[in-house]
């Protein structure tokens, strides 16, 4: 433990899960930190680190020019020892062809693709720091530790919603990545493209020309290397992003998949391929046991290019507009005010929260709101910050009758074993996100494609790792995928460091309650199937006593949490009142300004959003460079033939009567 400064063993499994374990580790960690006054061997890079006193107060912050490279702790990858401003020239302005704001899921992709030819200079600017230089960054790269960076202010913006009226005034956590790689460096690594009809809806209902599935599929294939099946019609074979299934060793995963099939929903061999509907293995963005963030997959291979400059620890204050033309950005590094000029375009990839917030502070948004916070309106665009959407999820938790869950690994010795095995081999429980079984179902007849998603975990614990049920258990993460509730994001003040007001308006549409009642009852029916009989104990949460519509409504209101999928706040469309960007992702009414991230989604897709966000960036890169788009693919995905008159394709082995 001393070799890695001890900290990682405070909790190599999902942050956390035992606060008692953390308390027991504190004396050990304190003693390890005491001995950090002497040189230590960093086993990640096999190099000697000098004593703390020699390294200074902040030893891992880069103090050199943006092109400086050094050995990456994760087996030779290049690290981003980018310019952080300290010791840098206080030059007022630099000029680039493209300026990208945000080195996250979309920004890293754009930085790679726009510099690929060597013909264009790019500045990639990020408020967070490196994803490798701090010893704690090991938590980013070990998949099992996904909840740790999500709970660290170093890596997470820690946004929070306003009191949500539909949730009894509760405020929900809205984590967004504040590090190279953005949210792809702190998310759960679940890979879901979304259903083909999601993208068709963008084009058919919102006028997002050439964003139908047939136009998006080539970019999904371009971005990925799918390691499980040879299916070139549907899956990519040589893209930068590695996607794989988990090993599905724990018997609870197989039992859950079998239970879904017994309930009449059928099986899917690959929900990102020909058939989404049904139950099967869940895909994750992990390569050889290490998180495949966009920093690892896209940015690191581009890091050595002379035409790419990466500036981290830099706070972008506004987009600079000259009339109706974007010409660059103003930003701040430490106490130094700087400006970067974009000869061709400025591209916002700051995410569903950051991009609309920056537009508003730049004078682009609803004029009445801008004047209320003292920002001069440069361009009235009322849709900026509107159309906010998210997924909610509820954990249906059960006792497990057999000692096969992950609970036995949550003690200190179990965590230590996981950590050591991962450091030495990149294998074992440390190399998975533990969400290895999935399901996509329709909540009712007449619904064309799945509107409920399942993640399954062989442990009973909160997603963020802050609570764990004592004893063996398991849980199904479940929730509706297409809520009609809409919220907004509004700048609170003219100060960019003041978090914006975020109001999702969860559960405020009349349809929301009915959808959740179906989710709870259908999930219970799945868990009640014979395949779960050897394992299913009592229902822990929301509890077997929660039966009536009113009881379910109240349980959902009190227990539901965000799935961390905000989107839609710079809506793509043909130019209606609340559209912000056109089909080329150009901001309506302005020149040389685009938005490329999940904020452009007209309607949320039916699953996790990291995959479609990366696809958006891949497609956007061709649009920005003026390339001919990849030819559309005419593959037709599976749809239940009788979706109009039946909710599932088969009959459940064990049906449960609805209780109202």
Description:
With 660 residues, this protein is α+β, with helices and mostly antiparallel strands. 24% of the residues lie in helices and 19% in strands. Strands 3, 4, 13, 14, 15, 16 and 27 form a 7-stranded mixed β-sheet that branches. Strands 9, 19, 20, 21, 22, 25 and 26 form a 7-stranded antiparallel β-sheet that branches. Strands 7-8-10 form a 3-stranded mixed β-sheet. A hairpin with a 2-residue loop joins strand 15 (325-333) and strand 16 (336-348). The radius of gyration is 24 Å and the shape is globular. The model is unreliable at 1-81 and 85-90 (pLDDT under 50).
Features:
660 residues, alpha+beta, seven-stranded mixed beta sheet, seven-stranded antiparallel beta sheet, globular, disordered N terminus
Write the layout of secondary structure elements.
Blueprint: H1 19-35, E1 40-42, E2 47-49, H2 52-55, E3 93-101, H3 107-115, E4 122-125, H4 138-141, H5 147-150, E5 159-160, E6 173-174, H6 196-206, H7 213-223, E7 224-226, E8 241-245, H8 251-262, E9 278-281, E10 283-284, E11 286-287, E12 290-291, H9 294-302, E13 308-311, E14 315-322, E15 325-333, E16 336-348, H10 351-361, E17 364-365, H11 367-372, E18 379-380, E19 392-400, H12 412-425, E20 437-441, E21 452-457, E22 473-480, E23 488-490, E24 501-503, H13 510-527, E25 536-541, H14 549-559, E26 561-562, E27 593-595, H15 610-625
Parallel strand pairs: 3-4, 3-16, 4-13, 7-8, 16-27, 17-18
Antiparallel strand pairs: 1-2, 5-6, 8-10, 9-20, 11-12, 14-15, 15-16, 19-22, 19-25, 19-26, 20-21, 21-22, 23-24
Helix pairs in contact: 3-9, 3-15, 7-15, 13-14
């Amino acid at each position: 433990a001393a070799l890695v400064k001890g900290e990682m063993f405070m909790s190599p499994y999902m942050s956390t899960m035992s606060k008692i374990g953390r308390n027991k580790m504190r004396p050990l960690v304190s003693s390890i930190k005491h001995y950090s006054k002497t040189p230590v061997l960093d086993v990640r890079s096999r190099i000697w680190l000098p004593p703390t006193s020699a390294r200074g107060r902040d030893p891992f912050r880069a103090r050199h020019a943006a092109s400086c490279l050094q050995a990456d702790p994760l087996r030779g990858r290049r690290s981003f020892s980018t310019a952080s401003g300290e010791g840098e020239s206080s030059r007022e302005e630099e000029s680039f062809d493209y300026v990208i704001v945000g080195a996250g899921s979309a920004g890293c992709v754009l930085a790679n693709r726009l510099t690929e030819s060597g013909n264009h200079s790019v500045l990639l600017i990020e408020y967070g720091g490196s994803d490798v230089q701090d010893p704690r960054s090991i938590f980013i790269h070990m998949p099992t530790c996904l909840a740790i960076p999500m709970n660290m202010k170093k890596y997470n913006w820690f946004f929070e919603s306003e009191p949500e009226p539909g949730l009894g005034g509760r405020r929900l956590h809205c984590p967004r990545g504040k590090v190279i790689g953005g949210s792809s460096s702190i998310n759960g690594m679940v890979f879901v493209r979304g259903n083909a009809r999601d993208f068709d809806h963008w084009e058919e209902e919102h006028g997002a020309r050439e964003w139908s599935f047939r136009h998006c599929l080539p970019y999904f294939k371009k971005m990925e290397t799918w390691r499980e099946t040879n299916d070139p019609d549907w899956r990519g074979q040589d893209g930068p992003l590695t996607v794989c299934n988990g090993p599905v060793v724990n018997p609870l995963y197989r039992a859950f998949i079998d239970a879904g099939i017994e309930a009449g929903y059928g099986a899917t061999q690959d929900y990102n391929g020909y058939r989404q509907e049904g139950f099967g293995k869940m895909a994750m963005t992990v390569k050889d046991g290490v998180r495949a963030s966009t920093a690892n997959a896209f940015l690191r291979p581009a890091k050595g290019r002379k035409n790419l400059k990466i500036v981290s620890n830099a706070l972008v204050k506004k987009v600079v507009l000259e009339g109706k033309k974007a010409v660059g950005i103003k930003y701040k590094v430490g106490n130094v005010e700087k400006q970067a000029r974009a000869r061709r375009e400025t591209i916002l990839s700051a995410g569903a929260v950051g991009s609309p917030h920056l537009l508003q502070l730049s004078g682009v948004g609803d004029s009445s709101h801008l004047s209320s916070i003292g920002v001069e309106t440069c361009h009235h665009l009322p849709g900026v910050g509107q159309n906010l959407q998210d997924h909610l999820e509820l954990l249906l938790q059960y006792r497990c009758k057999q000692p096969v869950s992950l609970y036995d690994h949550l003690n200190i010795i179990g965590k230590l074993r996981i950590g050591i095995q991962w450091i030495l081999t990149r294998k074992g429980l440390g190399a998975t996100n533990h969400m290895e079984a999935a399901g996509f179902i329709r909540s009712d007849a007449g619904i064309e494609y799945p509107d409920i998603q399942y993640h399954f975990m062989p442990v009973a614990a909160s997603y963020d790792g802050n609570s764990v049920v004592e004893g063996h258990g398991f849980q199904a993460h479940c929730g509706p995928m297409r809520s009609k509730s809409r919220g907004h994001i509004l700048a609170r003040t003219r100060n960019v460091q003041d978090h914006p007001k975020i109001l999702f308006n969860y559960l405020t549409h009349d349809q929301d309650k009915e959808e959740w009642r179906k989710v709870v009852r259908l999930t219970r029916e799945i868990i009640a199937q014979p395949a779960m009989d050897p394992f299913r104990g009592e229902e822990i949460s929301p509890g077997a006593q929660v039966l009536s519509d009113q009881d379910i409504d109240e349980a959902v209101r009190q227990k539901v949490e965000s799935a961390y999928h905000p989107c839609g706040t710079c809506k793509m469309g043909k130019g209606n009142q609340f559209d912000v960007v056109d089909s080329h992702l150009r901001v309506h009414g302005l020149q040389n300004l685009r938005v490329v991230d999940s904020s452009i989604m007209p309607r949320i897709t039916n699953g996790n959003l990291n995959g479609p966000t990366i696809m958006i960036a891949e497609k956007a890169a061709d649009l920005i460079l003026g390339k001919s788009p990849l030819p559309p693919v005419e593959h037709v995905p599976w749809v239940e033939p009788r979706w109009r008159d039946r909710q599932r394709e088969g009959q459940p082995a064990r049906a449960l009567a609805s209780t109202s």
